[in-house]
Design goal:
This protein is mainly α and 171 residues long. It has eleven helices and no strands. The protein starts with 7 loop residues before the first helix and ends with a helix. 37% of the residues are buried.
Length: 171
Amino acid sequence: AHPNREFHSPAVKVLSCVCAGTDIHRQMAINSGCLPLMAQLLLEPSIGQPTGSGVRLGVAQALSYIATGNLNQIQAILEMGLVPIIISMIGGTEAALREVAIRICANIAANANDRQIRYLVVCGTMESLGAVFTGSADENLLEVALEATQSILNNGGNEREETQGRLEGCI
């Protein structure tokens, strides 16, 4: 990330526009090294300040676009270690950021293979989604969480029973 934070917001907007394109656009962004920088911006402590909050949300939105990609692009997200960061955002206090984090999980689950779904489950996605169901009255948040849960259960293959058990243990 650029040391001058004034560049973060416009750069994230451009990145988000690129990632909203096709698989080719998303792959170009990944090949350019955006994922480690995205992780850095999501983890940066000062990012929670008012101007940083928008940057963090923009990074999450760009990541949600990458999560709609192909299996290799999803694998790049997993290998970069972004899933635990995403899961921690689901438990956060910013509603918009929580919603995008849940959307990232839904997008990954909708396009992932069994092994990738298993990784989502092992990282605690179902427990985080279960906490949303029991602790939120926000209809938009609940709808996106339900969509993510449905995608994980529908695409979980051999792991469906264990995944259901994890969710039931949370509710």
